[in-house]
Amino acid sequence: MYQFYDYLYTILLSLTIAFSIKAIGILLITAMLIVPSASGRNIAKSAAGMFWYSIIFAILSGVLGLSASYYLDTATGAAIILSAVMFFIITLIVKTFSTYMGRTN
Q1: In angstroms, rounded to a whole number, what is the distance separating the alpha carbons of residues 29 and 25?
Q2: 8 A C-beta contact, residue 77 and residue 66
Q3: Counting Cβ atoms within 10 Å, is residue 31 exposed (0-12), middle (13-18) or buried (19+)?
Q4: In a domain? residue 41
Q5: pLDDT in tens, 11-61
Q6: Is residue 88 classed as helix, strand or coil in its secondary structure?
Q7: Number of domains comprising the chain
Q8: Is residue 103 predicted with pLDDT exceeding 70?
């Protein structure tokens, strides 16, 4: 049964990449696959938590980037990646701060 989900995930990921290449470019697709996952990993305590945090960060990055692109009249893909990187930096600071606070107590 798990093999079915592996294949389904691979097919969905391939379709996402294929349809997104034309919209935002290959380098930005790679960044949108990696940066939200890295943000989720910074604050998640389990694999399931990382999965859900990654989805949340990806959606928020997309919405924030599209809004910033519209109102600031900038490139859409770059604005989305910039917002994703912003979330990564925030989660990295939160992780570092919480680790530091955990060691001093």
Answers
A1: 6
A2: no
A3: buried
A4: yes
A5: 888 888 888 777 767 778 888 889 999 999 999 998 889 989 999 999 999
A6: helix
A7: 1
A8: no
What pLDDT, on the 0 to 100 scale, is given for residue 101? 81
Cα gap 40→29, rounded to integer Å = 17
The 8-class DSSP code of residue 73 comes to: T
C-alpha 34/C-alpha 94 separation (Å) is: 19
Residue 12 falls inside a structural domain = no
pLDDT in tens, 72-84: 999 888 899 999 9
On whether residue 48 sits in a domain, the answer given is yes
Distance CA 96, CA 58 (A): 22
Question: Which amino acid belongs to residue 71?
Answer: Y
Instruction: Please give the residue range of the domain that contains residue 54.
Output: 26-104
Burial 7-30 (b: 16+ CB within 10 A, else e): eeeeeeeeeeeeebeeebeeebbe
